[in-house]
Amino acid sequence: MTTLVQTRAALAAALAEGAAAGRSRAVVMTMGALHAGHLSLVRLASEHADEVVATVFVNPLQFGPGEDLDSYPRDLDGDVALLTAAGADLVFAPEVAEMYDGEPVVTVSAGSIGTILEGASRPGHLDGVLTVVLKLLHLTSPNVAVFGEKDAQQLMAVRQMVADLDVPVQIVGAPIVRDEDGLALSSRNAYLSAAERAAALALPAAIAAGTATAGRGGTARGVVDAARDRLSASSGLLVDYVALVDPRDATDVPADHRGPALLAIAARAGATRLIDNAMVDIAPEEER
Ligand code: PAF
């Protein structure tokens, strides 16, 4: 039976029951508008702890001016039903005033990770994410927190914050979930028209092209070019970035890089900004 709580006090009371019984806890943080990707996080979380807390909160701090804060899809009843079916024990869905007593004066900085790729396109976004993630970690005090690998840079920023600020939680990454046509699941896919959705399939195709180039022993430059060429071939997309980066800090790998690297891409289909990524492995020179 899933319990819905919307205040800090009710959350603390509900968490106290599990703590008194010695139950370990995992948290899955979401902004609602849930899809199968979120539910896979809940299922993975339940493999890591006795009870799973899901949070549903559209965090104003991570939206920039002109972004979709007001129009972001909200359906708490539907989300609670999905979280119940996926096995969440507790849902924390606070109002904005419950989380922020006005504009916060002190926030978390994602540092250098927050200024490149997503951070360059969405200034302040990752700072806003880390600020709410740290607050939710404090409020739910979990043993484990599960984040999707689709938001790869968010995941690396969270890992870095937990390491740098000594936050006592284990961070677990969960694989990207894709639709049958290959498009990575995202709440924002709901914004796409049929034509935009068709154009958006260039994102998984670009990831596949880059991955194939790495598998054939291509260079870092070749991997990026293959992915960019595939994205650019789709007239319905505006490419934001294509990058091959160190999965720890999102910095570009050197031109002569061999071994694992994260291929990360972002593009706009109409008004909707989409991201995708995959780990690729550039074979050592002697294997070519
Ligand atoms: O990935 C998201 O949905 C959000 O960035 C998160 C982690 C819930 C913080 O608001």
Could you explain the architecture of this structure?
- There is one protein chain.
- The chain has 10 helices and 9 strands.
- The protein has about 290 residues and is an alpha/beta fold.
- The strands form 2 sheets. It has a 6-stranded parallel β-sheet with strand order 1-4-3-2-5-6, sandwiched between helices. Strands 7-8-9 form a 3-stranded antiparallel β-sheet.
- The longest helix has 16 residues, at about 125-140.
- The N and C termini lie far apart (about 55 Å).
- The mean pLDDT is about 95.
- Pantoate binds next to strand 2 and helix 6.
Primary descriptors:
288 residues; alpha/beta; six-stranded parallel beta sheet; three-stranded antiparallel beta sheet; binds pantoate
Helix/strand layout:
Layout: E1 3-5, H1 8-20, E2 25-30, H2 36-48, E3 51-56, H3 76-86, E4 90-92, H4 96-99, H5 118-121, H6 125-140, E5 144-148, H7 152-164, E6 170-174, H8 194-200, H9 202-215, H10 220-232, E7 237-245, E8 259-269, E9 272-282
Helix pairs in contact: 6-7, 9-10
SS summary, helix count: 10
Q: pLDDT under 50 segments (min length 5)?
A: none
Order of strands, widest sheet: 1-4-3-2-5-6
Estimated radius of gyration: 19 Å
Mean pLDDT comes to 96
Q: How far apart are the first and last residues' alpha carbons, in Å?
A: 55 Å
**Helix/strand order:** EHEHEHEHHHEHEHHHEEE
- Main beta sheet: strand number and arrangement? 6 strands, parallel
Q: Helical amount among residues, as a percent range?
A: 25-40%
Shape: globular
Quaternary organization: single chain
Q: In terms of structural class, how would the helical and strand content be classed?
A: alpha/beta
Strand proportion:
15-25%
Number of strands: 9
- Ligands and ions found: pantoate
